[in-house]
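Exercise 3.2. Students should predict the tertiary structure of the chain below and write it as structure tokens, then compare their answer with the key that follows.

Predict this chain's 3D structure.
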Amino acid sequence: MPVISILHITAPLLVVTMGALISEYAGRMAMFLEYIINLGAFFCFAFTILTHNIAAAFFLSVLSCTLITIIFERLATRSKANMFLVSLALNMLYGASTTLFSSLFFGTRGVLYSELFSFEAPSMRIATSILCYAFAFLQIAMLVKTTPGLTLRITGSNADMLRAQGISVSFYKMLSWIFAAADGALCGCVLAARLSSFVPGMSSGRGWTALAAVFLGKKHPFLVALSVAAFALAEWLSTNIQNIAMFKNVPHSLLLALPYLLSLLLIIAVPQKAE
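Answer key:
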């Protein structure tokens, strides 16, 4: 059913978008999301081969990506680096590291597959969707209902007020990147497990789409979730619209660009606050 398929597509995108949202609240947009998805997917494959346990691989992949991000965040903070540029540099580092690790450990920069990393597609889609929705909605509840969540939401906009109250702004900024790294890595794990393989570039723009969803949802959790659903619908249409007679002759390459075209059109169409 189309609705079920769209819900499955929405799940991993919603998770990585929560990371983008939390980092934006803290005033530190996580520009590294695109390639940390790929790194998380690679680690998921590698740790599954190592441990023979997909659940352990998910955990170790998320943990590894998060620890790496914390280390670089702390180094950059102590050196008072420009965190926007650091975030962009991390994105490039994660992309290059994925290629390097794949070449070193598996002897190829291409697709990775193994009998140890082979799963029943329907069951994996259901299990990973449940995991993603649970993780995403727990984060929404944290942002809306808890004191740390409320503090995170004003870290970027009212940092001076938090400092006046003795609250560590630096800690909450770091925490926002922890969420972003974990969410991006989890998204990568889900994508790899659903394909039963690691494919270079498998993020397919989801990191950038997550940033666009935050922008379009005006940083409101539920509006952001609706934006994610709209992008998921566009992705579903891009792969299924040729089944409709009137779109049968539309070039497939153009249809694949539909989610990105939708992003551009919505950004242009949706009014934003004047600076």
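Discussion points: The chain has a mean pLDDT of 89. The first helix runs from residue 2 to 25.
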